[in-house]
Amino acid sequence: MKVAILSRNKNLYSTRRLKEAGEAMGHDVDIIDTLHCYMDITSSRPAVRYHGKELPEYDAVIPRIGASVTFYGTAVARQFEMMGTFNINESVAISRSRDKLRSLQLLSRKGIGLPRTGFASKSDNVKDLIKNVGGAPVVIKLLEGTQGIGVVLADTAKSAEAIIEAFMGLKANILVQEFIKEAGGADIRCLVVGGKVVAAMKRQGAEGEFRSNLHRGGSAEVVKLTKEERETAVNAAKVMGLNLCGVDLLRSQNGPMVMEVNSSPGLEGIEKATGKDVASMVFQFLEKNAKPHSTKTRGKG
């Protein structure tokens, strides 16, 4: 197969591993900088151009689109879909996953376990907003935040009110969620490929840190999932329409709860923690599923 990886940095671990794994399996793999692509949209034969030349036809594309370039990145992915290229994560699904509020609403509608979550526009709703998610402590999240940035734990109702009102004063969109104390500052990252959990790790936040992100000093170790946790991760990926994603779960007294579904999950932490060759599993999925014009939305979403 001829495969394109959409990535802004060819030296990133995940990008490198995907290219190495694909080439080791006999595939022709190109890394394409998403922002250097430009599109021929008006033509009856849609095309993607790159550094002054039209890109060749690819059998599949793997989008590694950062949150900061979601709009342009999904436009490029959608153009490939219009050309009939198989996209492991369709543009519509990526856009859906990047909208935290929409994601939670979709997961909630399908009965997926979630922390109690509130969303409001006006500061006169703040007290009831906090009360409705179970009261302090609460977690306050910027809708546009990534990698733990813009996530604050408010221990008391007074501090929660002050933080929420400050964010609202800046016209920032925020979510207010119940704090799952029994999780103990840990979460579980499930890597889902083609409707199966292929690897899972437990991430533990550094001492005094409730966020478990590895780049914030957290640690990771292999974890054995329960049947319910596995099913929750698979169902969350299905609801979002993603063939490749990371599903972050919290272990609560009410069962597994989904924090987030990540459409461009990093491979470094989970491959090192579990010893599994996730990159090769991605190409095994493509070998079985990458057929021309098989993208469901075909660029219409």
UniProtKB/TrEMBL annotation:
Binding-site residues for Mn(2+) 1, renumbered to this chain: 248, 260
Binding site for Mg(2+) 1: 248, 260
GO molecular function terms attached to this record: ATP binding; metal ion binding; ribosomal S6-glutamic acid ligase activity
GO cellular component: cytoplasm; ribosome
EC number: 6.3.2.-
Domain ATP-grasp residue range list: 104-287
Cofactor-binding details, from the entry: Binds 2 magnesium or manganese ions per subunit.
EC primary class: ligase
Entry's Gene Ontology BP terms: SOS response; translation
Protein name as annotated: Probable alpha-L-glutamate ligase
Organism: Leucothrix pacifica
